[in-house]
Amino acid sequence: MCAADSPLRLRVQFTKQGQARYLSHSEYARTLMISARRAGLPLEYAGTNMSRMKVSLSPPLPIGVTSDCELVDFNLTSYVPAAEACDLLGKATPDGIAPAKCRLMGPEAKPVGKVIDTAVFTAAFPETVGGGELEDAVERFSEMSTLPYQRVQPRRTRTVDIRAGVHGLEVVGETEGRISLKMTVDDGIAGTIKPWEVVEVISGMAGIGREVWQQAEVNRTGLFSRRGDRLISPMDTGAGRSGAGRGARGVRY
Amino acid sequence: MNSTHPGSLADRLQPLLLRVERPSRYLGGEWNSPDIPAESTSVVFAYPDVYEIGMSNLGLTILAEVVNDIEGASAERAYAPWLDMEAEMRREGIPLFSLETKRPVASADIFGISIPHELTFTNVLNLIDLAGLPLHASDRTSGPIVVGGGCGVTNPEPLAAFFDLFVLGEGEEVIGLLVEMVGRAKSQGWGRTRLLEEASRLRGVYRPDDYLPEYADDGTLKEMIPQSGAARKVTKNLVDLDDWLYPTHPLVPFCEAVHDRLNVELFRGCTRGCRFCQAGMTYRPVRERTAGEVVKLVDELAQSTGYDEVSLCSLSSTDYSRIVDVTSRVAQVCEHRRMIMSLPSLRMDAMSAELASRLDRGGRGGLTFAPEAGSQRLRLVINKPISEGDMVDAVMCAVRAGRRRIKLYFMIGLPTETDEDVAEISKLVFRLRDAVKAEKLTPPSFNVSVSTFVPKPHTPFQWCPQITGDEIRHRQDILKATLRARSMNLSWHDREMSTVEGLLARGDRRLGRMVENCWAAGGRFDSWSDHFDFERWMRAAADSGIDPGYYLYRQRRPDEVFPWDHLDFGVDKEFLQAELSRAMEATTTPDCRVAECSECGVCEGLSVQPVLKGSDS
């Protein structure tokens, strides 16, 4: 079956590590689009002169933060097996960016940028930070119903309720002698709480100095769609009625 | 970040990256980055502006690939760090580093700095200083040899004190010879002096130390006296394009470069003979690539880069002898690879407009032309005799093809220009608009960009004075008052930047101290209008005993010796003088590709011929 009249969406989970963490969101998006072209995927284009690649990206990652889970949808004009797409992308991406998983989504699946509302981050503190002081701060934070935070941006400063945007916060065990903070926060269509904001607030409550908490290594471990208490990964939804994966190989280009 | 090379600064750089704007400028590791062997003759090519601008430089891309193809040699890159990064580097004591291995530039064997134009001179000095090298060539006893190249070395005299060598003309061949010589010097234990002496004997290599200026009482240059047996003139390098592979694996940056596309060179040189154009005089003769090679390159490069746009570049793309053929064949490649083709540097005629409109599938809504002057008389003076009929045809063609914007480049301050000529720019734009209206079509918007003419060395106008700052303002005011309509936008160049550019363009060695003083006073990124400080330049001039008016506003005597006369770019001074006379009579000189030889001296002097590939496939 030719997939040309039944649009396909290739959903890819990338990791963003190493020097790639210094790329801004727009640079990262550009990198993925060039990678997809270099990979030779049958990409769909839009715009008046068919000059704009149809892609949907997960919420921006702050510069300097690594990620195990960056999601992207590429619209395709014809079928390509997910495993082959993953292989092609793996050869085309630069150091630091690698596809971890690919799957084909059906035409009715919402673009990834429109379903994500939650992210999970870990922040690994320097070895000098002990678990006790952080646990106490996390407990006090969790007991609060609201916590105003002044967000300073280049063009405006505004106050947000950081407590309302944090849905889970815990101190996780030591890894290589470092204590980590695991946080589940709003990220995407529901608004955004930045991981550094939570690190700053908790560190402040724990009496950890700026020069110490700024050395924390932050990593995004997952992106989700929140349904009640459940976190649903966009990699696990959306393929139900698509028929994706059943197309004929021969119609690829 | 690559930290495997001994001496790599990667670990020290990492904390800085989170404190600066656009850390991707300092990462390296782009697609097609070469593996750099630890033990090799290393060249660092540096560009005196930010990464996004430097990455668009085709010359450095070509040279880097040439060096990386040499066994036992490697090419790395460095760019001017932005002000925030420079401050961080100086605070942390981190010297200028290469993007590939993050090693200090000072540990390289050759430090090649591209000099694109005069307003990068302070950044050039900053690169040398940030590298931790003594600023003056005479103070350097170790470290890499500092070599300058690029368009800015048509008159490198204001920078003579800071460079060990300059390379005149095209660098493909000479960079290989220089790398080989440095390798030999290392293995045989030559001293720095011997290496520089040997290198200065290579064709096109100019060692400023070999020439001593002698000035007359009136301040003009009397003579450049060759020292220790140096030749009276240094002749530029010229390569046969068929002998040199075009880079097939250019680096693809993570961020958007200013020319964010694939560049394939159609040909080098231009013999149209526009009298204000330095590139047209110094890159002669015309040498074309075959259409088949161009098409093959586009296909290969599209695969190796992943770009979605290709630009067929040259000094005047529609002058390529098989332009229709090559563009239709490249269009097929673009169709297959879902790319857009663009043709920069268009002549203003219907053929060019039609070609661009037909082939540029992306459209982008606009076309750009450069009539340069508003009146027909002045266009004859500058030897760019585009008729108004051709301009109307070009605009009509663009509008019929759906173009909504026309950008027009003009200059003010051209020799013999009067206020009427300036006013004629506005009248011409209105006539173009009215011609579209007369055909019952919706006129496009006209973006009129007006720069100030700066007389450049090696051109027929090198004898002419530049107009003063007050005169620039007066002529800009004429345009501001007359070019007023809803569909017309006027933009103009900063007159003070043009003044400094003009001062440096025809400067001599005495200006070196001024450039150094300006740099020491904080001069950086002078080609960025928000960082350019005219007062700082004028203070530096005063502190150095320089009278800018002497260099800017003086009509040179016909027999005056210029600071660049000993640098031979092929075109005879007699030809330039004759062209100036013809300009004053508003007489044109035809292109030698379609008419008889204009006797510019290039073919005879350099023993070459124009290479046109009209009959080749």
Write a short abstract of this structure.
Chain A is of the alpha+beta class and 253 residues long.
Protein model, in words:
The complex is a heterodimer of chains A (253) and B (617). Chain A has 253 residues and is α+β, with helices and mostly antiparallel strands. Chain A folds into 2 domains: 8-113 and 233-244, Alpha-Beta Plaits (2-Layer Sandwich); 118-231, Alpha-Beta Plaits, CATH 3.30.70. Chain A is built from 5 helices and 13 strands. Chain A has helices spanning 25-39, 82-92, 131-143, 195-206, 210-213; strands at 8-16, 45-46, 52-53, 55-57, 66-76, 97-105, 118-124, 148-152, 157-161, 166-175, 178-186, 217-227, 230-232. In chain A, the strands form 3 sheets. In chain A, strands 1, 4, 5, 6, 7, 10, 11, 12 and 13 form a 9-stranded mixed beta sheet that branches. The radius of gyration of chain A is 20 Å and the shape is elongated. Residues 240-253 of chain A have low confidence and may be disordered. Chain B has 21 helices and 19 strands. In chain B, helix 1 (10-17) packs across helix 4, helix 11 packs parallel to helix 13 and helix 14 (419-438) packs parallel to helix 15. The mean pLDDT of chain B is 94. In chain B, strand 17, helix 15 and strand 18 form a beta-alpha-beta unit. In chain B, 35% of the residues lie in helices and 14% in strands. Chain B has a domain at 10-231: 3-Layer(aba) Sandwich (Rossmann fold), CATH 3.40.50.280. In chain B, the strands form 6 sheets. Chain B has a 6-stranded mixed beta sheet, with helices on both faces. A 4-stranded parallel beta sheet of chain B has the order 15-16-17-18. Chain B is an alpha/beta fold and 617 residues long. Chain B has helices spanning 10-17, 51-54, 58-68, 83-92, 121-130, 172-188, 192-199, 278-282, 291-305, 323-337, 350-359, 376-381, 388-400, 419-438, 469-482, 495-505, 511-520, 534-543, 548-552, 573-584, 602-606, and strands spanning 41-47, 73-79, 110-114, 145-149, 165-167, 205-206, 211-215, 221-226, 234-235, 262-265, 267-268, 287-288, 309-313, 340-342, 366-372, 405-412, 445-452, 488-492, 567-568.
